């Protein structure tokens, strides 16, 4: 299952984390929602592959620890999504399609 690119319509913002939005539902530790808006990562799909961290030319992603999550115990957090240059590398390299990048989405809180 890939990230829903229409999450702005299907989900609601439930919290903020490190300067970006979190789109619910969130029920820790099993359900963590989507982090980010311009650069959105579905934490419930992310399996700690790490290609996005390695390949992003402007270091948008940082690891965040998520102990107890069924898919992986670390997630690629779009901590610096405002730096994104829309190269789409992360979208291409993610093996589970957990990332969606859309410069048209509002990323400011
Ligand atoms: S689209 Fe490019 S610049 Fe933006 S987060 Fe992904 S890899 Fe980084």
UniProtKB/TrEMBL annotation:
Ligand binding ([3Fe-4S] cluster): 46, 52, 94
Keyword Amino-acid biosynthesis attached: no
Domain 4Fe-4S ferredoxin-type: from-to ranges: 37-66, 75-104
Renumbered residue ranges of the record's region Disordered: 1-20
Free-text cofactor note: Binds 1 [3Fe-4S] cluster.
Cofactor annotation: [3Fe-4S] cluster; Zn(2+); [4Fe-4S] cluster
Keywords, in A-Z order: 3Fe-4S, 4Fe-4S, Electron transport, Iron, Iron-sulfur, Metal-binding, Transport, Zinc
Positions annotated to bind Zn(2+): 17, 20, 35, 77
One GO molecular-function entry: oxidoreductase activity
Binding site for [4Fe-4S] cluster: 56, 84, 87, 90
TM regions (residue ranges): none
Secreted in keyword set: no
Record Gene3D superfamilies: 3.30.70.20
Domain of life: Archaea
Primary role: Ferredoxins are iron-sulfur proteins that transfer electrons in a wide variety of metabolic reactions.
Protein name as annotated: Zinc-containing ferredoxin
Organism: Halosegnis marinus
């Amino acid at each position: 299952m890939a990230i829903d690119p229409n999450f702005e319509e299907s989900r609601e913002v439930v919290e903020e984390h490190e300067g970006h939005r979190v789109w619910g539902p969130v029920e820790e530790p099993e359900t963590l929602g989507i982090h980010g808006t311009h650069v959105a990562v579905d934490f419930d799909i992310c399996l700690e592959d790490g290609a996005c961290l390695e390949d992003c030319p402007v270091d948008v992603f940082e690891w965040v620890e998520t102990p107890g999550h069924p898919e992986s115990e670390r997630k690629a957090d779009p901590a610096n999504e405002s730096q994104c240059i829309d190269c789409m590398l992360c979208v291409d390299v993610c093996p589970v399609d957990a990332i969606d990048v859309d410069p048209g989405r509002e990323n400011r809180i």
